[in-house]
Amino acid sequence: MKLLRLLGTLAAGVLLVLLGNILLLWEYSSVGTPWMAALTALLCLFWLILLIVPGRRDLGSLRLGILGQGLFLVRLCLVMSVLELPVCVLALHAVLRSPPGWPEALVLGGSVLTFFLVQAGVLLAGLVRVGGAARQIRWYWYVLLLLCWWMPGVNLLLLGYILHTAKREYRFERSRLELDAVRAESALCRTRYPVLLVHGIFFRDWQMFNYWGRIPAALQKNGARIYYGRQQSAQSIRASAEELHAQLHAVLEETGAEKVNIIAHSKGGLDTRYAMSVLGDAPYVASLTTINTPHGGCDWVEKALAAVSPAMQARIASHYERIYRRLGDPSPRFLEGVRDLTPQAAAALNARCPLEPGVRYACVMSRMRHIWSAPFPLWVGYWCIRHFSGRCQNDGLVPGEAASLPGVSLTVIEPAGQRGISHGDMIDLSRENIRGFDVREFYVRLVAELAREGL
User: Is 183 within the bounds of a domain?
Assistant: First the structure.
């Protein structure tokens, strides 16, 4: 397969080199004019097709096909450069052997310009496809490339980084599609009960921007039935639990299921525990898996609140609530949600919400390795935790030991390398393919385990 791709790239490179040197062919070839005209037209048509056609679907994904086509066009430019070297030598030799005069020099100069335009068109088409289809390249890399395009060496380094990142993304996403295709019929995430995903504080279950990133699609491809908690972005645990209670029973009514499997992130785990123990929803929950949930509270939140004046707190809350009312929250309560994350509030919740018999519990926690393991604002949270509480092990919002529940095993995500995994990485917030940790596969295996247990 690789040999066929290589031969195809070489063949396309030869055709484009012929087009780039078409003036030399017209000057030195003994082929008749009609044949040369037909060859020129066919080569131009081939070049235009490469520039216009975005790419075929790759394993059912048009975006992946466009990305693959973009990388192919960039590789094609490199092949063209290699193939052009002997052509330049032969053309220069022919010009030097010709009698002195302007016609030969003009033909050679025109041929160089033609080749440059052909190659530039292919390169531009490739970069446009890569820029439009790649998701793992941050916008500022493109800005740097535009600003430094005139700087020899620097432009090649930036271009090389962008293409290397795009190539890595292409291979990663293609391998995921191949994996999903292989196990599609097995439906290993088809659990007995539907899966209810419960978000944390400061977010909502938007359709346009899924809180859980690419995770739900990966689960559904493997047979899972996915529903969402749909509570407001910031409310007290009690109010959020009441909203979750209503959504849970709506899911039960819609599906006809007796119970649900709940996967809750951050404060969503506290909301769920309140709904189970206080609102009587434990009989309707088969399993609860909490992801980076502050069961022990966040002491840095308490210290941060003490460091901010009540007037400033009220001002911040007012701005937040005004914005989120416009985004769909009927009655957001910023400060109530934040205050329920303190250690005192967590201790009260733990006393009121013990482990419920008959429910399968699991706790998961991740850790950042340093302050640059996550983008803004999570690196600010990492610094705050270390500054206010001196705890080095945290995910940018939750101290490591706060994620455990007495009597429940805690799974700590610590991939190889120096990056670490942040609070947002556990819900695929930035949609980043992290080396050593595939968040989509993590959730697929998590739900597959529930299915194997008959839940």
Answer: no
Tell me the per-residue pLDDT of 406-446, one tens digit each, with 9 for 90 and over.
Answer: 889 898 887 667 778 888 889 998 888 888 889 999 999 99
Q: Give the domain-ending residue among 141, 158, 178.
A: 178
The three-class DSSP label of residue 379 is: helix
Domain residue limits at 446: 188-452
Considering the domain architecture, whether residues 281 and 135 belong to the same structural domain is answered as no
Helices 62-97 and 154-182, interaxial angle, to 10°? 140
263 closest CA partner among 443, 402, 437, 396: 443
Mean of all residue pLDDT scores within the chain: 85
Q: Which residues contact 447 (CB under 8 A, 6 or more apart)?
A: 189, 191, 195, 219, 222, 224, 261, 263
**pTM (two decimals):** 0.82
Sheet holding 285-291, edge to edge: 226-228, 195-198, 260-265, 285-291, 360-366, 410-413
Residue 368 neighbours by CB distance under 10 Å: 26
Predicted local distance difference test score (pLDDT) of residue 290: 95
**Size of the chain in residues:** 455
pLDDT confidence tier of residue 300, bands split at 50, 70 and 90: confident
Asked whether residue 156 falls in the same domain as residue 226, the answer is no
**Residue 165 neighbours by CB under 8 Å, 6+ apart:** 134, 136, 137, 141
Round to whole Å and give the CA distance between 288 and 276: 10
* pLDDT, tens only, 3-33: 777 888 888 888 888 888 888 777 777 777 7
Statement to judge: residues 167 and 297 lie in one domain: no
| Residue 270 lies inside a defined structural domain of this protein | yes
**Both tokens assigned to 291:** 């992801």
Instruction: Tell me the CA distances in angstroms from 107 to 28, 99, 112, 114, one per residue in order.
Output: 10, 14, 9, 10
Backbone φ and ψ for 197, nearest 5 degrees, come out as -95, 125
- Give residue 184's pLDDT: 75
Task: Please give the C-alpha separations between residue 341 and each of 231, 293, 392, in angstroms, as whole numbers.
Answer: 17, 10, 19
Q: Which residues pair with 334 in a beta bridge?
A: none
Spatial separation of the C-alpha atoms in residues 246 and 374, rounded to whole Å: 34
Tokens 């500022």: give the residue.
140
377 and 284 assigned to the same domain: yes
Residue 74 CB-density burial (10 A; 0-12 exposed, 13-18 middle, 19+ buried)? buried
